[in-house]
Amino acid sequence: MTSSDPHPPVGTPAGWSERLSGRDLLRSTALSGGVAMHAVNLYLTTTILPSVVRDIGGIEYYAWSTTVYVVASIVGAVASSRLLGRLGARHAYATAAGVFALAALACAMAGSMPMLLAGRSLQGLAGGVLVALPYAMVRVVFPERLWPRALAMVSGMWGVATLLGPALGGVFAEAGQWRAAFWSLAPLAMAFAWLAMRVLPSREEDATTPALPVRQLVILTMAVLAASIASVSDTPQAMLAWLTIGVGLAAGFVHTQHRPGRHLLPRGSLRLSSPIGALYAISALLAVTVTCTEIFAPLFLQSIHGSSPLAAGYLAALMSIGWTSGSILTSSLAGGRRVAMLRASPLLALVATAALAMLMPRTTGAPILLPIIGIAMTLCGFGVGIAYPHLAARVLVAAPPDEPDLAASSIMTVQLCATAFGAALAGLVVNVAGHPAADGAMDMARAAGWLFTLFALAPALALRLIWPRAPGM
Question: Is residue 35 part of a domain?
Fold first, then answer.
């Protein structure tokens, strides 16, 4: 199943004018729109949640709004390849968008926190499908030469969502209309469902429906859930216990992946000697690099440097701006320039993370430190962004011939899992390194120093993996 639109020969560089024209523009809008809805919903809900608990209660379940959403997203991302094989691109996308709309309405009408969590779980399930399907759809609706451009648009939606989600959530929260925030997502989801039915291809005649590896899915879901609980635990002891359980379950998942039978990931995904295994590992390490900064930078900027919540939020958004601009500006590179960008990606992220390790803990010189910190965060996002579309495109190429859809949908599965485990590890480091003193206040400066120092290992390992492999990627 490929695009029926005429395209220049494969060797011809693909420009944005080609990517953003005619039917390809509509297809790109549909695929990117699903990712945007998932990401905007994540950041929007985080912003309005204080208003939600003031209205319907349930403060004890505050963190679970994000936890259940992320865990359900993992399940949706894993199931996306099966949904694509059974329904085809058009109906799989439209079905997920329709479920997302219904879930948004359920959240809007929730009268208690358990009801809201049920709606959030359904949202996460549909959102996971929407965010994973584009990686498989890019392979079947566009020629190979356009994959990096299309994937850059998909990746860039996370940067857009980081800017729009908190802004929109803030508007609704200030107006005292948190329910309207969820109501507004429903018609948007239905609009994208209608567009998908118009422009995406239907099911292939010879399409296969892969069996869902239930045992692996249960183990992975439990591992991610344990890691998510660890990241919101009240004490270091509880956090370490849940993280240990998560790691143990992850080891069990690895064991089942090597056994015969149905698998969640393509063959070779857990071997660094395999091309697809190295690509997944590099993508996961870069995702972890972003996670620690994205979660804790606003907290450190406010508590250490005295920034206002608004200023800290915009400084943190610089990472997403860097990611988006890097993805879009370098997505058309090929040959030696693409190799150079791939090698530069983890190096830039490493330099930026090291700079944050030195600058973030400092409590003096704030007027000049904040702009430099902002530059470092932009550089970190840019470094990750310049590699991500190319890494995702190479996964599609390196996939085993009989597992292309599974490999494509696994891109987001790997990223979501890396994010969940990265968040848990970052929370553990901050809680332990910033252990409260006698006055009960956490030492945020020490926590920031340890966090960025330890997490600099992620881009360092990515650099070690990517440098010798870049020419073949």
Answer: yes
Least confident of 201-205, 321-325, 345-349, 465-469: 201-205
Structure tokens belonging to residue 302: 């406010």
Structural domain total, the chain: 2
Asked whether residue 252 is domain-assigned, the answer is no
Last residue in a domain, options 188, 208, 228: 208
Question: Which tokens sit at 300?
Answer: 């450190």
240-269 core/surface letters (b: 16 or more CB in 10 A; e: else): eebbebbbebbebbeebbeeeeebbbbbbb
Please check whether residues 94 and 198 belong to one and the same domain: yes
Q: Which domain holds residue 336?
A: 263-473
Alpha helices in 57-112 (DSSP H): 64-108
pLDDT at 185 over 70: yes
Decide if 44 contacts 99 (C-beta within 8 A): no
What pLDDT does residue 346 have?
95
pLDDT band at 224 (very low <50, low <70, confident <90, very high): confident
Place of tokens 């099966």: 82
What would you measure as the largest C-alpha separation in the chain, in angstroms?
Answer: 70
Among 161, 177, 208, identify where a domain stops.
Answer: 208
Tell me the C-alpha distance between 102 and 186, whole Å.
7
Q: Residues 77, 198: one domain?
A: yes
Alpha-carbon torsion, ordered 291, 293, 294, 299, to 10 deg: 130
340 with 458, same domain: the answer is: yes
Domain assignment present for 283: yes
Provide the pLDDT for residue 11.
41
In tens, the pLDDT along 105-119 reads 999 999 998 899 999
Cβ-count burial 140-178 (b if 16+ within 10 Å, e if not): bbbeebbbbbbbbbbbbbbbbbbbbbbebbbebbeeeeb
Q: Are 47 and 166 spatial neighbours (Cβ–Cβ below 8 Å)? A: yes
- Give the pTM: 0.76
Amino acid 183: pLDDT: 92
d(CA 60, CA 40) in angstroms, rounded, equals: 24
Same domain, 301 and 400: yes
Q: What is the CATH number of the domain that holds 316?
A: 1.20.1250.20
Taking 70 as the threshold, does the pLDDT of residue 13 lie above it? no
